[in-house]
Every structure is written in C-alpha cells, then in structure tokens.
Design goal:
CATH topology of the largest domain: Rossmann fold
Number of domains: 2
CATH class of the largest domain: Alpha Beta
Helix content: 25-40%
Largest sheet: 6 strands, parallel
Structural class: alpha/beta
Bound molecules: pantoate
CATH architecture of the largest domain: 3-Layer(aba) Sandwich
Strand content: 15-25%
Number of strands: 9
Number of helices: 10
Distance between the termini: 33 Å
Shape: globular
Amino acid sequence: MRIITTIKEMQHEAKTMIREGKTIGFVPTMGYLHEGHMSLVQKAREKNDCVIMSVFVNPLQFGPDEDFDRYPRDLKRDELLARKAGVDVLFYPHVDEMYPKELTTMLTVNKRVDTLCGESRPGHFDGVATVVMKLFQIVLPDKAYFGMKDAQQVAVIKGLVDDYNLPVEIIPCPIIREEDGLAKSSRNVYLTPSEREESTLLSQSLNAARKVIRDGERDPGLIIELVQSYLKQTSGTIDYVEVLSYPELQPVNRINEEVIIAVAVQFSAARLIDNTMALRSEKAIGV
Ligand code: PAF
C-alpha cells in the first residue's frame, strides 16, 4: 500500500492507473477507521482493479462549535487497517495541501439540507460537497463508496454528481452495526459507558418502527411518537426523529412508499445518528 500526501502525486498515480486500463474504486473517509469503512473497501475491491482511500478530516464541514479539533485521529492505526483491508493507495493530505489559501469558489447545497443534520448543522453539507468535489478531481474514481449511516450525505452527493455530470458512480453501502445494534461510527468513542448502554435504544427504536410499518401502520406521526418513546429513555437530547421520502427528504402524509426513518440524539460529548428504510424492496441497501 502506498501512502500519498500531495495532490500532484495522487493525481499522477490515478492517471497512471487509468492509462493502464485499471478502474478505480474510491473510499473517502475522515479516518479513525472501523468495520463500516472496511466494508466499503471490501465492496470497492470486488468491483474495481484499484482501491484508493482518503483520510482527511475536512475543516469545511465542521461548525465553529463542533468537534474538528478533537475529532479522533490515529494515522498509524488507520494505515494498518487500510493495508489489511486491501487498500492500494492511502491518500492522506494535510489541511494546507487541500486548502493552501481561501477557496475562491464554494459549493452551496440548495436541496435536501433544510432537514435532519442539515437543519442543526448549517453549512455542513456545503463543506461535504466542496471537499468531495475536490477529492473526485484528485482521485478520478470510477466508483465511490459511501455508508448509508449518513443517508442524507449520500442523497446530497448523488445530487452533486447529477448536477455536475461527474463521471463517477455513487455506491451506497449498508450500515454496519455492533452486535447490540449500535451503528458503527468513529464518534462512538465519545460515549460514556452508561451512554454506550443507552445507545442501543436508537437501533431498537428503528427496528420497532420498521416492524409496525411492515404490520400495516401508515401514519408517520404515530411512527415518530413510537421512536421518540424509545429515545426518551436515554439521557441524551433528541435532535430529530423524522419520517421522510428518500432520496428527496420530503415529509410524507402517509407511508405509501419507501421512506427513511432517521434519528439524531445528542449525548454529553457524542451526537449519534442512525436511520432505516421502510417499505424498501428486499434487495435494497440498508434493510
Ligand atoms: O463521511 C465522511 O467521512 C465525510 O463526510 C467525507 C465524505 C469523507 C467528506 O469529508
């Protein structure tokens, strides 16, 4: 596995791969890797000749009061895990390499951001779209792999790719969970032991919601109440519980077709998000 830290070298390496007729699968991450990331690499390995992973904690997507400075970082550990998973190139640029001066152009996401994490994290998805656009120009991937835990991010990035006709296929991948149901996340390390125990209520609430929808309930208001009744048992503060169309992320009056049920709970130092799809076909992602 090669570690590349400069944009020039990364672009050169990607162009060489393309010239040699190799396809590139790309796994963008902010590091502190876990099994969720590993599953993205595994999927990328299956369908591409080369796998490039980026590890970059992107300051543009953090608000002033968010955890950019204390976001967990451990390159040595990431390097070991990426190598073991079969990554060919680890792209690990410094902030000054990605943003040597103030950007003259910033992307603004207009749709799908007035709800869920977009509502409580203003500007977050502008930062995500901007860095992803930049990373795509540097890594030149055929396919890019994103976890459905950040379902809103996947919807926003699909919009970006459609808007700008980017020649990359976005592959959404299922949420990977701990044995007790907690969705894997780099931020889970912030949980206190008691919060970690309570955190299983997120996935339990979503499973209960999916079950009652499968049994015929069609009222989104009742589903939201049901999910809230679980989350209120935690010591955290509920940020949102929503039932929305996907990928449009619009409220629905009745659950007649596929919806996303999405939750966010703020614990003392960790903000956890989770979601599930309901009324989705057997083969689809996230079920
Ligand atoms: O999902 C993440 O880890 C980040 O938002 C991403 C896509 C790598 C952009 O910084």
